[in-house]
Amino acid sequence: MSSSPAENGITYASAGVDVEAGDRAVELMKDAVKATHNSSVLGGVGGFAGLFDVSRLVSYKKPLLATSTDGVGTKVAIAQAMDIHDTIGFDLVGMVVDDIVVVGAEPLYMTDYIACGKVVPERIADIVRGIAAACSVAGTALVGGETAEHPGLLGEHEYDVAGAATGVVEADALLGPDRVKAGDVVIGMASSGLHSNGYSLVRRVINHAGWELDRQVSELGRTLGEELLEPTRVYAADCLDLARAFPVNSSAAIHGFSHVTGGGLAANLARVLPQGLLATVDRNTWELPAIFKLVSELGNVPLPDLERTLNLGVGMVAIASPEAADAAVARLNERGLPSWVMGTVAEDSGAFTGTVDYVQGAKGVDGGAVRLVGQYA
Question: CA angle, 92 as apex, 90 and 96 as ends, to 5°?
């Protein structure tokens, strides 16, 4: 008769937690994390707390700290199904730092959290390498993190990721609704694909159609899984460059940004407009990327539902004074970020209130309104 674990003494390992595997994962990821560090990061990797020297903030007249936290959502299910884990970090970093840059803040440092059913060192290291690579693109230091093994709560091959970041902005450079004026121009910046929102809808559509992730899709030019796992574009460096080139207190100025995440374009843009103003966005100014057309057709998804759920090809929006608009678009395109003028801001007469294409306020923000017009190109 075999002995039960209790007869031999119950250990942490017999309960399903492998501390040594966690240590191996840290060794595998250490160099990638260090590569994001600059002279402001103290203490290296593995401390109880990440340390960041903020003495440079003494040069600010009135520094404001900005913070954000987020996860990746059910896109992790695609990464797990494909056993590809080194890109999901871009989705995490994009969801966090690009919320901070909306107010004009520079994201200084970030921490991450990974919960998993079983620590597989190579898999954890791949995830963190992706996070570190995205932090490098954003110019953000990855100063710490945590990997937690949760046997019995998550399956052996399941995990979830989350992160938080802190940034800083000078008070008189703060961007937001108070800056936006009638006559401003709305600039769209292309997404890299689905990014990290709406995957519950997308996965339901794909499952309903009976498509497998390894299916080659001619419209996409690659497999379905490769398209669904396309990393989120990280906009932080591009937006900061734009805000510095067109300072908020000049006549040619950037007045605000909107990160297009859950809720879609109209709802997120409405959050950064003041009450009484209406942004009119012309759908005809850009063409829907193939993946959005595919989801729409496969699932017979109504257009209003698509627009409330997915980014539909626009991942970030800038609101600029008319004097800055053309130069801002040119600057973004020169940086390799496809951008275009997609609309204008005007006084809201109230004539369109209650219509299907009209959105006013969102996510608890009683802000301005957005009206989508025309048909997609």
Answer: 115
Residue with tokens 């990160």: 259
Whether the CA torsion 319, 322, 323, 324 is positive or negative: it is positive
Q: Which residues contact 221 (CB under 8 A, 6 or more apart)?
A: none
What local confidence, expressed as pLDDT, does residue 124 receive?
92
Residue 254, φ and ψ in degrees, nearest 5 = -90, 125
Comparing CA positions, the residue from 261, 124, 255 lying closest to residue 194 is 261
CA distance 65 to 219: 44
Task: Give the per-residue pLDDT at 6.
Answer: 60
Q: Which of 194, 317, 302 is nearest to 266 (CA)?
A: 317
Give the distance between the most distant pair of CA atoms in the chain: 84
Query: Which of 61, 219, 36 is closest to 142 using CA atoms?
Result: 36
Amino acid at 105: A
pLDDT by 10-residue block (mean), the chain, 377 residues: 59 65 74 82 79 91 97 96 96 97 97 94 93 96 92 92 97 96 98 96 96 97 98 98 96 97 95 96 97 96 95 98 98 98 96 89 83 94
The answer to whether 311 and 264 have CB atoms below 8 angstroms apart is yes
Instruction: Copy the structure tokens of residue 310.
Output: 């997915």
The position carrying tokens 């969801």 is 95
Per-residue pLDDT at 50: 85
**Which residue type does 109 have?**
Y
Question: Over 98-156, what HEC string results?
Answer: HHHHHHCCEEEEEEEEEEECCCCHHHHHHHHHHHHHHHHHHCCEEEEEEEEECECCECC
Sign of CA dihedral 248, 240, 331, 309: negative
